[in-house]
């Protein structure tokens, strides 16, 4: 019975994330094209042959948040504490901000790597300090 509930919860989270992603992605693609927030192909940096719209990270962040919210909606015995919620919201938000700035200003790879690594370290330290993973 318990595994059956977990299956329904997992399906619910997947459906919620899929619907939000399917809704947000075309909207932000259209916005990016209208505002010309696009990656134009260049021989030195971009290898694609056609312009690619940015802002997909907004749809990814919205989908991530939808997944987290739907988990708490479908939960029966799943309880989040503040540290878990912090890791589920803060790290994706940091990655989103770094990606958005990179889309608009073209950050260098070293700065992106540092910010992404810091985000990963933040999540790992939250997991370890709150004993979410047990003793490493």
Task: Describe what you observe in this structure.
- The protein has 136 residues and is an all-alpha fold.
- Helix content is 71%, strand content 3%.
- It contains four helices and two strands; from the N terminus they run H-E-E-H-H-H.
- The chain has helices at residues 2-34, 56-74, 82-105, 109-129; strands at 38-39, 52-53.
- The protein has a two-stranded antiparallel sheet with strand order 1-2.
- The longest helix has 33 residues, at 2-34.
- The radius of gyration is 18 Å and the shape is flat.
- The chain starts with a helix and ends in a 7-residue tail after the last helix.
Keywords:
mainly alpha, single chain, 136 residues, 2 strands, two-stranded antiparallel ribbon
